[in-house]
Design brief:
Length: 489
């Protein structure tokens, strides 16, 4: 095995004032003063009207409003208390609405919103509808988003291009492209709600994710007809899609256009997409060549860029270059992240190098870096590749203590370890636990188990799994229903 050529160096107070005492007057003048006052009080002349100065408020007196017509003080207080209580309630409920939206609890958010709408003093604004539409879209609730949008129109709130785009995005996230295009056509027919580059970028991304590239070309043509130029985000979306589909000629065409178009110049995301594409394919020379090209364009790398390089070098076991990148990150004060450590751990795991894998994991924890699900997937696979199956059990137990989320990839790693150990009974127990935890098996899960059964000549088990796989895939397609309620993304 290639020797490891680097090491981890980490390196009002209230004051009472006394009132002045009245000046003492001679007793002989007192009776005359009292007589004068009584004479003035007994005359029939009307009281002299006071002229109020600016800023003073006369209030109400017994001369201006009859006593029987004055409003009782207690009723005023009751109304003020009622108003203040209503404001306090509204503020509390509004805070609850914001909290549910922040936590992506769409069902609770809608319930609180309905409570607010029933109050005569509450008038929902455009921003509130926007947040709810985005939340429903991310939560896979496009039909609920449509109902909310129609409700908004019924209440007389004028729609905007941004609100229509949020509705369109909700359909795109659930892969309902026909409905999304319907929203686009509606926007085109409304003079004040014309689609913009963000609207088209959202729809283009949905088409790319669904591998419907013919629609991408038609959307580009429509944008050109409407004099809307794609921006860098739009082009990055298409670049990534073409790369995943292996359409390298189209990808090169888009990238070349970006290099000469000042309106959508490549950025660090463009750089990361291209480097990741060649890095995943193991084409190290092309990856390095494009890295230098992007640097010549004046694009500065970021932490994710270096993580992509480290991952690519690690997969090819080019530890010298992996070490160089990590040292370069330290020198320029780029932080080592969880992804950085994961890439190094994965490189050693694939090689079955348990010693350096453990050392990296220990350094990761020493620096206070939090491990995630991928960290433990790599550790489990690494110990399995090294034949240290007792340590696989230790890693599973440690993941439980650290409350690491157990997703499909995690169970696949454990199933992989069981298959490597040829412990089919434990593999079946893990598979059962996986389904009991409502964790959906994927094609990797079934492939691992089928290969393990084939190796032992258990053809009946292979047949049962293949049947289950078909039922699971068809069932998953049926479950793509906009009415499915999910509290979190």
């Amino acid at each position: 095995m290639t020797a490891l050529s680097f090491s981890f160096s980490f390196s009002s107070s209230i004051q009472f004032h006394s009132l002045p005492l009245p000046t003492k007057t001679p007793t002989t003048t007192t009776p005359s003063i009292l007589i004068l006052r009584c004479t003035v009080a007994s005359t029939s002349a009307p009281p002299k009207k006071k002229i109020w100065k600016q800023g003073e408020y006369p209030g109400r007196s017994q001369f201006s409003i009859p006593k029987e017509k004055r409003t009782p003080i207690k009723n005023i207080k009751k109304k003020l208390d009622k108003k203040n209580n209503a404001k306090g309630w509204a503020n509390t409920v509004t805070e609850a609405l914001s909290e549910h939206i922040e936590k992506k609890q769409w069902l609770q958010a809608l319930e609180v919103f309905e409570m607010l709408r029933e109050q005569p003093f509450y008038q929902p604004k455009e921003g509130t509808y926007m947040k709810l539409l985005v939340l429903l879209g991310k939560s896979g609730q496009p039909e609920r988003a449509r109902q909310l949008f129609d409700q908004m129109l019924e209440e007389g709130l004028e729609p905007t291009a941004e609100l229509y785009t949020a509705l369109l995005a909700a359909y795109c996230r659930s892969n309902l492209l026909d409905e999304a295009f319907s929203v686009l056509h509606k926007m085109v027919s409304l003079p004040l709600c014309q689609p913009d580059v963000y609207t088209y970028s959202t729809l283009i991304k949905a088409c790319v994710d669904d591998y419907r590239y013919e629609m991408v070309e038609s959307l580009y043509e429509e944008m050109a007809e409407r004099l809307i130029s794609p921006n860098t985000v739009t082009q990055n979306i298409v670049l990534s899609g073409y790369g995943r589909a292996g359409k390298y000629e189209q990808m090169e065409k888009v990238l070349s256009g970006m290099l000469v178009n000042p309106a959508c110049k490549p950025d660090v995301w463009t750089m990361n997409i291209i480097l990741s594409l060649f890095g995943n394919k193991g084409e190290i020379e092309m990856m390095e060549r494009w890295y230098e090209k992007f640097r010549d364009f004046g694009i500065e790398p970021e932490t994710r860029t270096f993580n992509i390089l480290i991952g690519a070098y690690g997969k090819k076991r080019m530890y010298d270059k992996m070490s160089t990148v990590m040292e370069y990150m330290r020198k320029l004060s780029y932080p080592w992240t969880t992804s950085t450590y994961n890439n190094v751990i994965e490189a050693f795991a694939e090689a079955g190098d348990a010693k350096h894998m453990e050392y990296t994991f220990d350094q990761m924890r020493t620096e206070g870096m939090k491990a995630d699900t991928k960290t433990f997937c790599c550790l489990i696979k690494g110990y399995a590749n090294a034949g240290l199956f007792h340590k696989v059990i230790s890693m599973v137990q440690l993941a439980g203590k650290l409350e690491i989320p157990e997703n499909t990839s995690f169970y696949n790693a454990v199933i992989y370890a069981c298959a490597r150990a040829e412990d089919l009974m434990e593999m079946e127990r893990v598979f059962k636990r996986m389904k009991d935890k409502q964790c959906q098996p994927d094609s990797v899960t079934y492939s691992l188990m089928v290969d393990a059964y084939k190796k032992e000549g258990m053809n009946d088990k292979v047949y049962d799994l293949e049947q289950e796989k078909q039922e699971t895939v068809s069932g998953a397609l049926k479950d793509v229903n906009p009415e499915t309620e999910r509290n979190n993304v």
